[in-house]
């Protein structure tokens, strides 16, 4: 069994270059960036925030990608 980590990003904290009025597009961009860096992740909009779920073993690498996107 694989341990799963959930990362939550509030819509209010999204950098200006992301369209906070279209959170599904932002979630898609995050998921694509993680996938392009070899990670399996699911990103989705859950009304008040974006939710990213990924194997815990990929947390450090995902954090690097998300920091590069200025999301964390």
Percent helix, as a range, is 25-40%
Q: Roughly how many Å apart are the termini? A: 28 Å
Sheet-strand content, in percent, reads 25-35%
CATH class label: Alpha Beta
Q: What is the count of helical runs? A: 2
- CATH A-level architecture: 2-Layer Sandwich
CATH topology: Alpha-Beta Plaits
Order of neighbouring strands in the sheet with most strands:
1-3-2
User: Over the alpha carbons, how many angstroms does the gyration radius reach?
Assistant: 11 Å
Mean pLDDT, to the nearest integer, reads 94
The overall number of domains is 1
Describe this structure in words.
- This protein has a 3-stranded antiparallel sheet.
- The chain has helices spanning 23-36, 59-68, and strands at 4-10, 42-45, 49-55.
- It has one domain (4-68): Alpha-Beta Plaits (2-Layer Sandwich).
- The mean pLDDT is 94.
- The protein is an alpha+beta fold and 72 residues long.
Concise structural overview:
The protein is 33% helix and 25% strand.
Give me some keywords for this one.
globular, three-stranded antiparallel β-sheet, alpha+beta, 72 residues, Alpha-Beta Plaits
Secondary structure elements and pairings:
Blueprint: E1 4-10, H1 23-36, E2 42-45, E3 49-55, H2 59-68
Antiparallel strand pairs: 1-3, 2-3
